[in-house]
Amino acid sequence: MVKGKHKGLLGLFQAVNLTPHPITVLREDGTQIELPSLGGLRLKEETETVPWSESLAVPVVDKRFTELEVQVKGAEELETLQRILTDPTRHVALIVSLPVIQVLSSLDNQKLAEVLREALGKAIGREVLAGLLPLAPDTGPASAVRDRDGRIIGVRRFVRSVKYAMAPVSTSSPVRRRKVDFSP
Is 180 among the domain residues? Predict the structure, then answer.
């Protein structure tokens, strides 16, 4: 298993794991690459029970993500993140959870820069933000490899968030559809 530098894993992108656990990537050639966790990029959430669901056997809640925060494991990991994320010559694959990816896709670069600056204690330049590629481990059945107990032992690929899009409406279609914009 290869650890540490991940040259060639994602082409020109240097992989930075900001999930709270290490990720094992299982490549087609049979090699495994472990991406150690440097900390976590997490969402704080609020939940509220939907009033009409109180009479149901299982309640329904509204979930809102209220804040994005970076937690770094230690001084060495902080130094690594500062070095990587402040270097305008690097392209970085930011490995995070799927819910974080979905929130990141709705943020503008300025908000992300503020979150990273606060966590790292250093400003993140426009060039660095332009070179960020947020990805999440693909834990679906086509990618995740599980042990006998169903625990994930590795993934074969990553996913990125794609903004919601719907095919154009055909005027000859008997079913009327409308485009729904989920942007904030």
Answer: no
Q: Is residue 183 in a domain?
A: no
List pLDDT tens digits, range 1-34: 445 445 556 777 889 999 999 999 999 999 999 9
Domain that holds residue 97: 13-159
How far is the C-alpha of 79 from the C-alpha of 105, rounded, in Å? Answer: 26
Per-residue pLDDT band for 174 (boundaries 50, 70, 90) equals: very low
> Residue 7: inside a domain, yes or no?
no
In sequence order, the β-bridge partners of residue 88 are none
Number of domains in the chain: 1
Report the candidate in 35, 26, 40 with the shortest Cα–Cα distance to residue 4.
35
Give me the helix-helix angle, 75-85 and 109-120, nearest 10°: 140
Report if pTM > 0.85.
Answer: no
